[in-house]
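Shipment paperwork, digital attachment
Item: protein structure file
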Amino acid sequence: MCTAKTILEYEELLEDAGFVRIHKSFLVNLLHVKEYLRGEGGSVILSNGKEIEVARRKKDIFINKMKEYYKY
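Attachment content:
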């Protein structure tokens, strides 16, 4: 038997564990965000060196989660 969850289900499951959805296809662990590059939505650099675009619609949510997570 195979069970699959949608990214929305994972987003809801992991939101209290330091994860935030930054794009329709990406859910990131805030502990692994090393840098935020400003732009329309901007992008993040992760601890593994990958750069991921932040959707314009998700930018404010992402920034607020970062401030909350790191008590900025």
